[in-house]
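Field: COMPLEX_INPUT
Field: COMPONENT_COUNT = two
Field: RESIDUE_TOTAL = 314
Field: MODE = joint
Values follow.
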Amino acid sequence: MKKSFINFFAFLLIIIANNEGFAQKLITKTGNIKFQASMPSYEEVAAESKSVSAVLDQTTGDFASLALIKGFRFKVALMEEHFNENYMESEKFPKATFKGKIEDFDSSKITSSPKNFTFKGDLTIHGKTKPVSVIVKISKAPNGVNAIGTFEAKPEDFDIEIPSLVRKKIADKIKINYSFLLVK
Amino acid sequence: MKRKKTAILTAVLLIMLSAGVYFYYGIIFKEARNIESEAPDFSLTAKKLLEDYNADPKKADSLYLNKTIEITGKATKETDSVIILENTVFCLFKEELKNKMINNKITIKGKCIGYDELFMEVKIDQCTVK
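Field: COMPLEX_OUTPUT
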């Protein structure tokens, strides 16, 4: 009887601790990712998703983000189709994720002017994971923080084959811009 | 005889031209999907959709991914361009929402883009309210 009471108490403590941990998390479900793979004098190859999810733990700097590949919109419908069917194989690999840690993250140091942080983590695209290190600019926003930045990725690093026929129309390095307004 | 030849030649040329135009506009400049005018492949409740995803994400993806679906449920959260149904289905709209629909039972049509493990939600985009 006594033991079960202690167990119950411990359980209660865990719940409270978890709830407190939860309060430290900043989230977004409408993060923005744009990528550019255009070559000069060829048709623009670019897409945007406005439904990227992300979670930042303010106490530890742990960060996780998830983008659904079908959520990327192109201006040209055929390009979107090729992107999904031939390159990203989004039926097989419906999402891209980015999980890791923002180094030396300290929420008390965040001000309204953007400050650079190093984000180290694993980037998974097309079912393939690669460790990456990118610079992220973080500034204070009402009720949370704003995290923006740019990085580059090579399609071949993620086993994405680009047929030689269109090779020169698509940049070797794909430029990815992201913008997350993370709030409580 | 000569007239017949010219007629055949013109016909062939016309067919080639129309095939060219069809290819050019039909394939290269194919219209993007208009989810709003598409008939839904599935019509179900928000709860059922999440249950299917929880039971077997792969199977659910093969059923719903990239399809136009119609979801019914109570709007539990609403922001500028997003409505969340039953805390489980995230619906992204192209334009900002004007009408307040919070706590109402509504039906939303959109394209299923997949399951978000971070928040355990199914996401649909290009939504319209029925």
